[in-house]
Amino acid sequence: MTRDDLARRLEVAVGRAVVGLRPIGGGCVADVREVRVDDGSRYVVKLADGGGLALEAWMLGYLATRTKLPVPTVVHAEDTMLVLEHVACDGTTIGPAAERDAADYLSALHEVTSERFGLERDTLIGGLPQPNPWTASWREFFRDRRLLFMGRRALDAGGISSTCFARLEALCGRLGDWIGEPPAASLIHGDMWAGNILVDRGRVVAFVDPAIYYADPEIELAFSTLFATFGNVFFARYQERRPLAPDFFEARRDVYNVYALLVHAALFGPSYGASVDRTLRRFVG
Question: What values do phi and psi take at 180, rounded to 5?
Answer without folding.
Answer: -100, -170
